[in-house]
Write a structure and sequence with these properties.
CATH superfamily of the largest domain: Class I glutamine amidotransferase (GATase) domain
Shape: elongated
Strand order of the largest sheet: 3-1-6-7-11-10
Number of domains: 2
CATH architecture of the largest domain: 3-Layer(aba) Sandwich
CATH class of the largest domain: Alpha Beta
Radius of gyration: 23 Å
Oligomer: single chain
Order of helices and strands: EEHEEEEHHEEHEEEHHH
CATH topology of the largest domain: Rossmann fold
Strand content: 15-25%
Length: 223
């Protein structure tokens, strides 16, 4: 049994090495490819040399599963709309496929009607919704042959669930949807007295900055 692991050129070391370790312990072989033969950990910059690049993979006949690992956001997003990567994802339609964090939109072509976990970037959310995916509020989702995770801290369990799917075993991370949905940042409101002062002296970015600094200093404006 063998898995094709596609990682960002500047990869997330925790995701990559943890996933490879889980598969190795389970007796599953793998090959790592990227857009270049020289890749590096996005944090430590420690380089690694690969045998070949992902563009040389023209079919998946030698593989039983496909996995995507994230890393540098620009490198990871480069896979989202890459025609060659899309072709590989479509070839993997009948086999186990895994993606984590910001790499999840890469596999959206297989996500129609399926639950997916993903790192909550607005662009990721829009791409997945447009593809017909069901956006989950849990860190790991397993839906049929598709295994996805929200962030790097879920890597070990995500990889273990992927192994279960590869081996035809029951995969269930037993997570409960909290119902939480991030709303994004809300507009900061000034204290009513500062709003009245602003209206009196006129709006100017420097005035607002000074008022906010005054507020942050702990002054009691109600006295």
């Amino acid at each position: 049994m063998k898995v094709l692991v596609v990682c960002a050129r500047r990869y997330n070391g925790h995701e990559l090495w943890t996933a490879l370790g889980v598969m190795q312990q389970a007796g599953i072989d793998f090959e790592v490819v990227s857009t270049a033969t020289e890749i590096a950990d996005e944090v430590t910059r420690q380089p690694n040399i690969l045998d070949r690049t992902v563009d040389t993979i023209v079919d998946l006949e030698d593989f039983d599963g496909l996995m995507f690992v994230s890393g540098d956001l620009g490198d990871t997003k480069a896979y989202w709309d890459d025609k060659h990567i899309k072709g590989l994802v479509n070839l993997a339609a009948e086999m186990p496929v895994a993606a984590i964090c910001c790499s999840v939109p890469t596999i959206r072509y297989l996500a129609e009607g399926k639950s997916v976990s993903f790192f909550p970037l607005i662009q990721s959310k829009m791409l997945l919704e447009d593809a017909g995916a069901k956006l989950a509020n849990v860190s790991i989702s397993v839906d049929g042959n598709l295994v996805t995770a929200e962030h790097q801290m879920a890597t070990e369990v995500w990889a273990e669930q992927f192994v279960h799917v590869l081996k035809g075993e029951v995969a269930d991370p037993e997570l409960t949807d909290s119902g939480f949905s991030p709303k994004g940042k809300t507009e900061r409101r000034l204290h009513p007295r500062l709003e009245r002062l602003r209206d009196t002296i006129g709006y100017h970015p420097e005035n607002v900055k000074l008022m906010e600094e005054y507020l942050d200093s702990g002054n009691d404006l109600d006295k």
